[in-house]
Amino acid sequence: MNTQRMTLPVLMERKKTGRKITAVTAYDYSMARLLDGVDIDLVLVGDSVGMVSLGYDTTLPVTMDEMIHHTRAVRRGVGRALVVGDMPFMSYHVSDEETIRNAGRFIQEGGAEAVKLEGGVKFADRVRAVVDAGISVMGHIGLTPQSIHQFGGYRVQGKNYYDSRQIKKDALALQKAGVFAIVLEAIPAELAAEITSEIDIPTIGIGAGRDCDGQILVLNDLLGLNQDFTPKFVKRFAELGEAVQSALRSYVDEVQTGTFPTAEHTYNLKRKPLREAGNQGSS
Predict the structure, then answer these.
(1) Whether residue 276 lies in the annotated active site
(2) pTM
(3) Mean pLDDT score, 32-44
(4) CA terminus-to-terminus distance, the chain
């Protein structure tokens, strides 16, 4: 395993070398520790924590305090990968000053190296303000979950000519604003390939085909831990949800039948019984 700490310049150099960027979305210390044992380049602490871990129907209720809480947990477990904090809904929509302040919290309190913002042309100036403040930004275009009500659901974006040209404009605007990479979510593979070939910064795809400079998936999805809807673009590399339920059934059975705990899992006195020791102490 490569133990060298990932940095932004190294990540961006992947665009030239052709080595694919590996990224996952994670939310807690235990999973972060597991990620640190493999060659994951980037860990995004996504606002999808609202749906995956907190039980919300969308990402919209997630707060800055919740995001900082989870980012700190991931940071404690990750020693090699680049940690990126996902700015939640309304944390960057009001003003440049408020956006910079919230982005700064991810760095100061959360321990992240960068933040991610959703949106293209409309938020390019806001992105530039954050970059000018010395905070690295990763863009996110295509299907942007914080705009779910405007889209009318979680739908593939850029399928017609006008929409595809707008998404390309978004990518170019974000590059000009100074982002170090762009997440392309749920867009046709042909559009993702076109954007990837025409911009100078890495693209990281999720449901955007194999021609992106890297890929990202939610860790719970790729491990088969998500019991809810699984998008088409998710490959389940394991079925740990089934393994977890099997283990829990075994636990329930052994507790109810009295076969757990055994002597192997029980503490015992190494010297005299408690009653004997107590009698000696009172004499």
Answers:
(1) no
(2) 0.92
(3) 96
(4) 63
